[in-house]
Amino acid sequence: MGLETYRNKRDALRTPEPMPPPGPLPSGNDDTFVIQEHHARALHWDFRLERGGVLVSWAVPKGLPLDPRTNHLAKHTEDHPLDYAGFAGAIPAGEYGGGSVLLWDRGRYDCEKWSDREVKVVLHGARISGRYVLFRTGPSGSQDWMVHRMDPPPEPTWQPLPELVRPMLATPADGPPGDDTAWGFEFKWDGVRAIVYIEGGRPRVLSRNERDVTGSYPELRALADAQGARQIVLDGEIVAMDEAGRPSFGRLQERMHVTRPAAVRRLATTVPVTYLIFDLLHVDGSSTLALGYAERRALLESLDLAGPSWTLAPSFAGGGAAVLQASREAGLEGIVAKRLDSPYLPGRRSEHWLKVKNLRQQEVVVGGWKPGTGRRARTFGSLLLGVPNADGGLAYVGHVGTGFSDAALEVLQPRLDALAADHSPFAPEVPREHARGAHWVRPELVGEVAYGELTRDGRLRHPTWRGVRADKEPAQVRHER
Questions:
Q1: Which of 9, 113, 188, 357 is flagged as catalytic?
Q2: pLDDT above 90 (res 158)
Q3: Whether the Cβ atoms of residue 218 and residue 262 lie closer than 8 Å to each other
Q4: How many angstroms separate the CA atoms of 176 and 184, rounded?
Q5: Which residues contact 278 (CB under 8 A, 6 or more apart)?
Q6: Would you state the pLDDT for residue 481?
Q7: pLDDT tens-digit profile of 390-442?
Q8: Nearest 10 degrees: CA dihedral of 176, 168, 288, 184?
Q9: Which of 8, 177, 205, 443 meets the CB 3.0–4.6 Å disulfide criterion with 425?
Q10: Which long-range contacts (CB under 8 A, 24 or more apart) does 178-183 make?
Q11: CB atoms within 10 A of CB 450
């Protein structure tokens, strides 16, 4: 292309980028490459190869792949001057390519093939080396290319980012371990568990029931952008804070079911969330699942993960009783005790992790509802609740009629109507006095209640509705005795 297109897109008085005057192109050895990390409107990596006195350039949204089984998109862009191989700095906002440019890697390359449709090179860099091929995917002149790694991964033990790591679960306990020197302690947060997968500066956020909720929490895009080329899987809790700075599940409810982009953007301002990170499951081609909790935590702390909407959840070695007391004084849900030598066991509920609650809470499955009266004549008056039993049935644990805001009533009633069923889902049957006038529903809606205590027959005494648990499936609900 030459440099005419490059000059036409830039104003030398407004950008610090190199701006060589018109004239003959310099001659070089055609063996320099550079990769620049470009935090513009969307994070990408600019891959540039010296050829014929210019840097022939491609914008690669996810960077050069390290896995030969994965190809990455590459967009052919205008040629850049050779001086650009040393450029790093800030391009002013509003200018073409506005944002920060970092020198990610540079070095020498060998050219094995160069044609209008295919460029095959061997890179010799400080951070990346190996054989790569760029190939055009559109017609002649198209900017659409792909880049493919022809060599094996850089390390024999290198692993690609996993598609799915199910969260490890804690076992309920009455108190912290007696001898707690072998344990670490974290606060229990009143939020939504989320595993965040980051690759190429882009996040994928999965809830505990494996639903993709990335679009509901745009705050985590900045977390991913801040990681640059780092490949990482994090475990943590998404929380919304109340006016006193405490996690509020009620406030988080306003964000949990919203997917429309305009509504999400509005709520991100009025009900912001924070991602509290407490575990590291994969980093830069290495799984950390087999490492002990203490080792994973040390690695996590070394990554310096702190930002406007994300931070590390605090962790304490030993002193469980004091941590539990501090959680009570702060009005938190409780604590989680984790053995320091415990590996991460995906999808398993283990006694290597223990949860101790200050407040009694129970996840429940809604199996029916009874009509309201007075102010609530248009909606339900109470919900009939159950918990799956060992036989796969739904055991009745009581009904709840308090804790519902007007907004919750309006949202829940259509959902209940859509789940209408002809028969009770409970086994054994609901007591006659509770079943009288009930409308049955398919047992698909999961919620959470707070309660005073359990009766001898396992019923909830004085329950109060806390909200829908969209992150849980009915089969995941268990009796917190």
A1: 188
A2: yes
A3: no
A4: 10
A5: 186, 235, 236, 237, 300, 312, 313, 315
A6: 57
A7: 888 899 999 999 999 888 899 999 999 999 999 999 998 899 888 999 999 99
A8: -10
A9: 443
A10: 180/318, 180/319, 180/320, 180/321, 180/337, 181/318, 182/339, 182/340, 182/341, 183/317, 183/318, 183/320, 183/337, 183/338, 183/339, 183/340
A11: 17
Q: What are phi and psi of 162, to 5 degrees?
A: -65, 145
Taking the C-alpha atoms of residue 207 and residue 259, their distance in angstroms, rounded to an integer, is: 14
C-beta of residue 336 within 8 angstroms of C-beta of residue 189 = no
In angstroms, the Cα distances linking 467 to 164, 332, 435 are 27, 17, 23
Stretch 72-85: mean pLDDT: 97
pLDDT of residue 1: 63
> How confident is the model at residue 243, as a pLDDT?
86
pLDDT > 80? residue 359? no
Radius of gyration of the chain (CA): 28
pLDDT, position 256: 86
Bridge-based pairing state of the strands 310-312 and 274-283: parallel
User: Residue written as tokens 């509005």?
Assistant: 266
Give 165's Cβ-side CA count (13 Å radius): 29
Residue of 339, 383, 332 whose CA lies nearest to 361: 332
Which pLDDT score is estimated for 452?
73
Chain position carrying tokens 């996993």:
162
What does the alpha-carbon distance between residue 43 and residue 39 come to, in Å, rounded to a whole number? 5
- Locate 222 and state its tokens: 């900045």
pLDDT tens-digit readout, 174-196: 899 988 899 999 999 989 999 99
Q: Are 81 and 54 in contact (CB under 8 A)?
A: yes
One-letter amino acid for residue 362 of the chain: Q
**What is the average pLDDT value for the chain, to the nearest integer?**
93
Is 188 noted as a catalytic residue in this protein? yes
Residue 453 scores a pLDDT above 80: no
Q: What distance in Å separates the CA atoms of residue 101 and residue 36, rounded to the nearest whole number? A: 6
Other beta carbons within 10 angstroms of residue 410's beta carbon come to 12
CA distance 186 to 326: 11
